[in-house]
Write a structure and sequence with these properties.
mainly alpha; about 140 residues; elongated; binds heme C; Cytochrome Bc1 Complex, Chain D, domain 2; two-stranded antiparallel sheet
């Protein structure tokens, strides 16, 4: 028996697929742009106090976030957890030792704020890039 291919239906399927691809691409780019903008605001209002305007850190007290080999070498999950739950104990960043305390993210900052701020850091000053979702922040908050 001959299988019949409906040319009109194939064409519609192809058109639909192409439309979906082009429709979602700009949305993703917009999402990241919005995250970066929000992240910059959160960074400037909170993180910058310690890590400084260009993420360069401050003497031996606050480690740099700019081109941080610590950020590069740790799983994203761990970075998110450090920011939302806090971090202390000796760490080495770009060859310098730090032994301070970063307190947990204050409660007035939402999961959206945290996702945006970390996305901003990951995509600034020579860091490796990537996007942090609200779901990833929620998951990190649970593991205390
Ligand atoms: C009150 C000061 C303070 C604030 C505010 C602060 N941090 Fe930190 N942060 C620290 C200290 C101190 C350490 C190192 C902790 C240690 O020695 O174990 C650290 C470590 C880090 C690290 C890992 C080490 C590195 O340099 O790569 C990351 C990533 C980080 N902070 C991101 C952030 C982000 C993002 C924010 C804002 C949401 C933030 N920090 C706000 C003080 C602060």
């Amino acid at each position: 028996m001959k299988t019949t291919v409906n040319p009109l239906r194939s064409l519609c399927t192809a058109l639909f697929a192409v439309t979906m691809i082009f429709a979602t691409m700009p949305v993703m780019a917009q999402d990241k742009a919005a995250l970066m903008k929000k992240g910059e605001t959160v960074y400037k209002s909170y993180c910058q106090t310690c890590h400084q305007a260009n993420g360069q850190g401050l003497s031996t007290v606050y480690p740099p976030l700019a081109a941080s080999d610590y950020i590069k070498s740790k799983p994203k999950k761990e970075i998110i957890s450090s920011v939302v739950n806090g971090l202390n104990g000796e760490i080495t960043v770009n060859g310098k030792k730090f032994n301070g305390v970063m307190v947990a993210l204050p409660k007035n900052y939402t999961d959206e704020d945290a996702a945006a701020a970390i996305t901003y850091v990951l995509n600034s000053w020579g860091n490796p890039g990537g996007v942090v979702s609200v779901a990833e922040v929620k998951a990190a908050r649970k593991k205390k």
